[in-house]
Amino acid sequence: MTVSTGNATAARQEPRGRRRERPGRLRRSFGAHWYAWAMVAPVLAVMLVLIGWPLARGVYLSLTDATEANIGRTIGVNVIPSTYEFVGLDNYLQILTSAVFWDKLLWTVIWTVVCVAAHYGIGLALAVMLNRRMRLRSLYRVLLILPWAVPAFVAAFIWRYLYNSDYGVINGMLKLAGLAPVGWLDDPTTAKAAVIAVNVWIGVPFMMVALLGGLQSIPSELYEAAEVDGAGPWQRFRAITLPGLRRVSSTVILLGTIWTFNMFPIIFLVTRGGPGSETEILVTYAFREAFTGVRNYSGSAAWGVIILLMLVVLAVGYRRTLRAQGDPW
Amino acid sequence: MRRLLPAATVLAGLTLAVAACGGGGGAPASPAPSAADPTKITGEVTWWDTTRPDSEGPAFQALIKEFETAYPGIKVKYVNVPSDQAQNQFQTAAQAGSGAPDVIRSEVAWTSQFASLGYLQPLDGTRAVDKPDDFLPGPLSSTKYNGKTYAVPQVTDTLALIYNKRLLKEAGHEEPPKTVAELKQTALDVKAKTGAAGLALNVDSYFLLPFMYGEGGDLLDVQNKKIVVDSPANVKAMQTVADLISSGAAPKPATTDSYANAMTALKDGKAAMIYNGPWALSEIYQGKEFKDKQNLGIAPVPAGSVKAAAPTGGWNLAIYAGSRNIPAAYEFVRFMTTQKAQADIAKKISLLPTRASAYSDPAVQGNRDVAVFQPIMDTAVPRPWIPEGGQLFQPLLEGYQDLVGGKSPPADMLKKVSDQYHGIMKDWS
């Protein structure tokens, strides 16, 4: 880490005025900092193998018609020749012209926006509350972090049981209260609300902890000064807390967006994408393409590339806006 | 040098194993393992079992103990994989070439798909297949792909109407319903007179098939390569199902966990009837309503306007082509599908044998569950065993869920399923 920072600053300082005299900035930098390059090299190589190669392979597959049936292999006595072909952008065209893609995209966007908004809002409220001095503060903190410690699949199964229409706890309570039970996971609307609730429950602790950290880094003198100046609680919150949290907020919202967009286990384990395929988001749909029946490698690779591109565009755009606005809050 | 030693041992072991195999790998003409005594074969066989670990698993594990005693050189590694995950996991492992078991308990619909993808060892003329003429034709047909045998039938099953005799009697019905119309009436009577639900539906594609067959419908017309899932007969069948729900004969089923919910309702006496197969019996007998086994009734599925018929299901044992212990796997599969092993399983947990001869075993004849299911098997309809067969269920399941949710009327729902089938089987009409 320190090596690369040093490298960057050095590179920035050197070209000042001397660019014309000695050509080959890269080579010069390499000559002066060969040890830094040598140290970075293993990491680079590993990254290339772990990230670059699968990515390149995925992009290549998405341009072919490869499926489980036509990729060549030899298993024991069975020899299957490779018969898949390069088909260009065919897979992408098929996906982008299908209604199912736009359906899923719309629902994925709703899912992401609602979840992240709830994560952030509830997380911030809890963080502000926990940041005050009170009795049993650490106990509350531990309790509130608990959902985060539960593995996602365990949480998903617990919730699935809570939602069970005949034997679930939620409907049991409704019945006790004299109300009619609800088929939570059987109706598209309630199923969507149900998966959002589970994901919010799971995601809030992370936001809370991150924002609590941010809150604690805001110097208390600011609040004292504001109070002396006669600012009310809401004014203090808007003028000190929110700006003070900006760096943390922008990072956790971006992270939360990417995580929620790709939140596979909740959807897959709570509803299996059902009823029908109503709660299926883009990643679970891509998974279904890739892992049911005769696997469609090329199609699912194309789905993956599309999802990746959307997230890259989102992340870059988000960062740009933040930078351009200076103070987005 | 020291590092090389284990590798050399493995190599030597492999060579021995291949030698002991006696050319069983590819030559169908030579069933000639006579050179070596099969009980001297050594190796480790990993078996992915898909039975329910608590109610069915122990019976198979007891069988494995017997096998290991008979074949002291072979060790069996028993792995229980849930039946709804085994297909997926096997495909992943088989494709990757690592982690696949030597033997898999393959559902009848998966077998041809696995075979078409090159994952299974051809078994014609090997020690794995013993007396093939003895197997029932329906289950046996599911083990063939392109004229070759890729699996050995282990157990067979079909759906039946399973009911609570006490509740039916209280509702004034001594006999189980024989037609769908009677089914509806019986269910309504149960609901009116006992307060329990009549029929608990399980929202799953397989459980729709008796209704379709009952009206003379089917999913595919294999001979003419035609998709017929949206035929008028099937529309009528779906209307029947929708009517069972809307009339109150069947309470609106949950679409999530509906199998478990229906089973629990039956076991607790909260529902009088369900459609299910022999695999469910050992679990049902654990329920409080059926402490007295005599309270459980099993009858053929009620007939539609054309006939009464349920699908042929069941499980095969297949060997992964990339297995390093193929000779041992042959012996294991052979042992697990003998008349004796099948009779033993039928006696203990009422799973139906695939060998005709097993039904004449006195122990099996004494089992009343098997006796009830045997005639039902005779009318069961084998599904088309095509590689795509395993993919037909997901679209139908989604359609069934839409139907139950009242989202799409029968004809629309089947049209949508048909469209998806056309996407799966592009050259079918």
TrEMBL record, chain A:
Domain ABC transmembrane type-1: 105-318
Keywords, sorted A to Z: Cell membrane, Membrane, Transmembrane, Transmembrane helix, Transport
Membrane topology: Multi-pass membrane protein
Amino acid composition bias (Polar residues), ranges on this chain: 1-10
Pfam families on file: BPD_transp_1
Stretches that traverse the bilayer: 34-56, 105-130, 142-163, 193-215, 252-270, 301-318
Record flagged with keyword tRNA-binding: no
Protein's name according to its UniProt entry: Sugar ABC transporter permease
Organism: Actinomadura luzonensis
TrEMBL record, chain B:
Signal peptide: 1-19
Classification via SUPFAM superfamilies: Periplasmic binding protein-like II
Sorted UniProt keywords: Signal, Transport
Keyword presence, Signal: yes
Family annotation (Gene3D superfamilies): Periplasmic binding protein-like II
InterPro entries per UniProt: SBP
Domain of life: Bacteria
Record's keyword annotation contains Transport: yes
UniProt record similarity statement: Belongs to the bacterial solute-binding protein 1 family.
The name this protein goes by in its record: Extracellular solute-binding protein
Protein species of origin: Actinomadura luzonensis
